[in-house]
Every structure is written in structure tokens, then in C-alpha cells.
Design goal:
Blueprint lengths: L1 H28 L4 H6 L1
Length: 40
């Protein structure tokens, strides 16, 4: 059970990292509100 929990946390962390990078990219490249960069 510990291995499954570790894998799920790893996948969740990956999604959070990719999502945060995408929000910063939207802020810098697409001219979105600076809150995108703060949240990212």
C-alpha cells in the first residue's frame, strides 16, 4: 500500500509542477494577469 501511495503522490506532484509552469508561461508569454504568475 505504501508503494501505491508514493506513486500517486509522485503523479500529483508532477501535475502540480507542470500546471504551475504553464501558468507562469501564460503570464509571461500570453500577457495574462500577474495572478497567473503568482499562483504558478
Amino acid at each position: 500500500m505504501t508503494v501505491v501511495k508514493s506513486i500517486l503522490i509522485f503523479i500529483l506532484a508532477g501535475f502540480c509542477e507542470i500546471g504551475g509552469g504553464y501558468l507562469v508561461w501564460l503570464w509571461l508569454r500570453e500577457g495574462k494577469n500577474f495572478w497567473y504568475g503568482i499562483i504558478g
